[in-house]
Amino acid sequence: xxxxxxxxxxxxxxxxxxxxxxxxxxxxxxxxxxxxxxxxxxxxxxxxxxxxxxxxxxxxxxxxxxxxxxxxxxxxxxxxxxxxxxxxxxxxxxxxxxxxxxxxxxxxxxxxxxxxxxxxxxxxxxxxxxxxxxxxxxxxxxxxxxxxxxxxxxxxxxxxxxxxxxxxxxxxxxxxxxxxxxxxxxxxxxxxxxxxxxxxxxxxxxxxxxxxxxxxxxxxxxxxxxxxxxxxxxxxxxxxxxxxxxxxxxxxxx
Amino acid sequence: xxxxxxxxxxxxxxxxxxxxxxxxxxxxxxxxxxxxxxxxxxxxxxxxxxxxxxxxxxxxxxxxxxxxxxxxxxxxxxxxxxxxxxxxxxxxxxxxxxxxxxxxxxxxxxxxxxxxxxxxxxxxxxxxxxxxxxxxxxxxxxxxxxxxxxxxxxxxxxxxxxxxxxxxxxxxxxxxxxxxxxxxxxxxxxxxxxxxxxxxxxxxxxxxxxxxxxxxxxxxxxxxxxxxxxxxxxxxxxxxxxxxxxxxxxxxxxxxxxxxxxxxxxxxxxxxxxxxxxxxxxxxxxxxxxxxxxxxxxxxxxxxxxxxxxxxxxxxxxxxxxxxxxxxxxxxxxxxxxxxxxxxxxxxxxxxxxxxxxxxxxxxxxxxxxxxxxxxxxxxxxxxxxxxxxxxxxxxxxxxxxxxxxxxxxxxxxxxxxxxxxxxxxxxxxxxxxxxxxxxxxxxxxxxxxxxxxxxxxxxxxxxxxxxxxxxxxxxxxxxxxxxxxxxxxxxxxxxxxxxxxxxxxxxxxxxxxxxxxxxxxxxxxxxxxxxxxxxxxxxxxxxxxxxxxxxxxxxxxxxxxxxxxxxxxxxxxxxxxxxxxxxxxxxxxxxxxxxxxxxxxxxxxxxxxxxxxxxxxxxxxxxxxxxxxxxxxxxxxxxxxxxxxxxxxxxxxxxxxxxxxxxxxxxxxxxxxxxxxxxxxxxxxxxxxxxxxxxxxxxxxxxxxxxxxxxxxxxxxxxxxxxxxxxxxxxxxxxxxxxxxxxxxxxxxxxxxxxxxxxxxxxxxxxxxxxxxxxxxxxxxxxxxxxxxxxxxxxxxxxxxxxxxxxxxxxxxxxxxxxxxxxxxxxxxxxxxxxxxxxxxxxxxxxxxxxxxxxxxxxxxxxxxxxxxxxxxxxxxxxxxxxxxxxxxxxxxxxxxxxxxxxxxxxxxxxxxxxxxxxxxxxxxxxx
Lengths: 254, 929
Known about the structure:
The structure holds two protein chains of two kinds.
Chain A: H1 11-22, E1 30-39, H2 40-45, H3 52-62, E2 67-76, E3 80-85, E4 103-108, E5 113-120, E6 123-130, E7 137-145, E8 148-157, E9 162-169, E10 188-193, E11 198-207, H4 211-215, E12 223-225, H5 227-243
Parallel strand pairs in A: 6-12
Antiparallel strand pairs in A: 1-2, 1-11, 2-3, 3-4, 4-5, 5-6, 7-8, 8-9, 9-10, 10-11
Chain B: H1 2-16, E1 24-33, E2 43-47, E3 54-59, E4 65-72, E5 76-81, E6 88-92, E7 99-107, H2 112-121, E8 126-129, E9 132-136, H3 148-154, E10 158-160, E11 166-168, E12 171-178, E13 181-182, H4 188-194, E14 200-208, H5 211-216, E15 224-231, E16 238-248, E17 253-262, E18 266-275, H6 284-291, E19 328-341, E20 345-369, E21 374-401, E22 404-429, E23 434-460, E24 467-491, E25 496-523, E26 527-548, E27 553-554, E28 560-579, E29 582-600, E30 614-629, E31 633-644, H7 648-651, E32 662-664, E33 673-686, E34 691-715, E35 719-729, E36 733-746, E37 750-767, E38 770-790, E39 793-808, E40 816-831, E41 835-848, E42 853-868, E43 874-881, E44 888-895, E45 898-905, E46 910-918
Parallel strand pairs in B: 1-7, 12-15, 32-35, 34-37
Antiparallel strand pairs in B: 1-4, 2-3, 2-5, 5-6, 8-9, 9-14, 10-11, 11-12, 12-13, 14-15, 16-17, 16-46, 17-18, 18-19, 19-20, 20-21, 20-45, 21-22, 22-23, 23-24, 24-25, 25-26, 26-27, 26-28, 28-29, 29-30, 30-31, 31-33, 33-34, 34-35, 34-36, 36-37, 37-38, 38-39, 39-40, 40-41, 41-42, 42-43, 43-46, 44-45
């Protein structure tokens, strides 16, 4: 699977921040609250073993009523970023509390390391490895996301069968983003997977010092594995589900 | 094409220069704008020119300078992007030098209107494809009824002159396509002046090669601007539907069809069926498709506050198939459904008509036990029932803004029913000696009109977590029943008979009004509280007039006028703590029920019950605890208190017309039934192998039960006469437990499920003034195996066994022990081209050790079908139902002081050939049929 992922020169970012620092530019550091919306109908529609008839029927019956949103938070500076699930409900009238499985994604640009604390498939893992970005294709599309002009990049995830469209900010040179996405010349502000099956968009972008959040000591317990072991784990599970013509996303984060 | 030729050229040059080529290079340049001012902080990317994948990136410094070093010497596509500029692109060939100095690169400014108007003001993404710039036109607002021309006038970079001629980027637009197709001939004005602007989602402007260029491939420079208008999804219409026609042996036939028409906002559907194969309605899948986006919208009810019966939910089920297994039916139904679905407004209207004709013969055997005696009766009956029902419902949801929602709904139905039954019941004593025989010829006609409407309003306050809701509803029910009963009771011991021919006309109407309010409050981050109030008021009138059809006189003893008023007030509050998967809630409500009855034996007669109303006050606590532990483990505990008012005919001395052998005496002093229920549950799911395990236990203890004192008398010249007295008594109790698990035996191939259940029920009754405690216990075990040999072959086996034990404290000799065993084996196989074979064999065995019963019912069904056509639009199916010709309806159970079994003949073996046509084609998946 590693051949899919090309190493991106994350060290360059240190250079960029050096340039910004010496040239009087501000060091980009801040916080983004993302709204993560899953559309179950579109998630089902992206499964290749579901017939066209079933997809059309799901869209007809469920089309507009199958969305579920939650908040996620990204803290970043030139050296590091941390992405976590937020406990705050999107709908304030939703007062029921759910236990969210561990999902803490840490990116260390200086040391070029990833450190992910993930509860998945009934176990908790600590995934530690060299930081690799996705093998993005850069397209010439521009749009504004929350006041930032963004360019689009596309990557096909052949493990999860997902077409990922990312919109990265041309004015925030941080190679990070929501979930495990990153490695682009700018911070990813918006993600759209499989034509709206999963949409992650920013609700709040605040440029401020977030050193406290970035340096907070988080308890991490779990089995230590590397990136390729983690990919094998997912891939094996997705293939098993596929064989039974069952969706994988009841057990795995989409 | 041009790019590919370029790349090939570069490759050739590259190969030629192979020998001198350095392996690592550096690239350097200065980025400037059109005024030669250096551009700082532009994003500089090196892409793979073949697939645009990102290979490396950097940023230009304050002087506009960027540099890449230590790069592989391969082909690159250099891309520079900056907030105010159009993306810059240049192909870089394989270098012959170590340092590649690109000198000065000039960024073209992003058209101000595109940046300010399209991207920033209209928030539309722009898509730059070669020389085409495309953006989402739907973000430019034009008044309703505007034409495309009006829209184009608003778009940056496009001018429309007084005559309607279009200019884009300074050139005239010669052609306008709609969804890429040539519409309305060659004059673009035909489109722009006629098409509704609101139908357009995207406007694309591009340079179209002239016919000459297309033909020769040589660019003659005479390019025209062309425009493509993409239609919004909602203006793209869709439809689907299918029709099935089937005919079989035994004069069996069936037909079924549906048609759905839709676009983004509207859904219109029709459904219909007719058959004589015991399908009294449509299945859930078809019904869901019929209701469309409204299929799940009907669950909102305005009963706020914790509910004592937590399983209460509303569903309109008039259209479902609910055949109970007895006899033969002819069925017909049709309906239409309309949904309007926009962000602010959701509207539904639905109408359904259905009728069914039931005919069945039934045989019933019942043994009744008393402390000193027992008797049995057998009933043989022939029933014919016909009903027709019209039902309509409508629902409106108006999301006024993010803080206010209004829901209004109404439904109504009109049911007409005719029922006739011929029945002969033979009553025998312990030694099987016949005592009396009761023959009934019963004809019943009823009309019922039902209406229900509810309005719910919800408001969220600005302060997060605070909200208020109100609801109100009105319900009305009017009914008219004419019941004619010709009854003959033959007393065999001394050969006498009594005969009666009674007609009862019953008119009843009821009205119900209720109003509810709920306030929610959030305290800090983890505490939530609510206060609710429920009010209900209802009134019911009944007028039952009986007359003797032989004498043509009214029968006062069987006639009555009744009036009932009920009122319900409940005020309650609950407090909840919610954090990290722990939700604990405790609540308390004070509930007041008021009932007032008037019951007159005849018009103008005296009130037979106490005319003063009665109040019942109860505190009703409620507690729920749920805890979501890590790794998909859920734990829950519930406690609630229920108050249930006595049934009207337990309170009132309502005469029983249907049988001379049965009387019920009302008890006006009866108090409501109250009970405490506790339930606990645990379940765990392991997504890694899809195994799950769960357990649940429920226990209900009644503080105060409503039980019956049955007095059986042997009356000369009549036979065995039962009189029933309702009374309050000490607690009945009930407990049941379930355990289930499923796990793979061979991952993705063989899966097993195991279910265990156990239950215990203790209930009290009096028989001839002797207290009886009926103690029932049941255990059940079932297991199923699912074997998926391939995507085209699947086998399923299900085995189950149930044991039921019933003890009667007054008569141990007749304690019952029944068991049943069931097996179901099914095969699904897809073979050759689009052939499917499906078969299942179901075997059921009922046994009663006490009455030496051993009833076995084997049912075997098989079918073969094939899909035809490229899109599988046609399907033919040949099916045989009940190959052994053994299908019957059977049930047995023991409760209270009796054991009973019922059997009825029903549709058995028949062969059926069906042809189906599906507009969108049938799925060729085995499991989706």
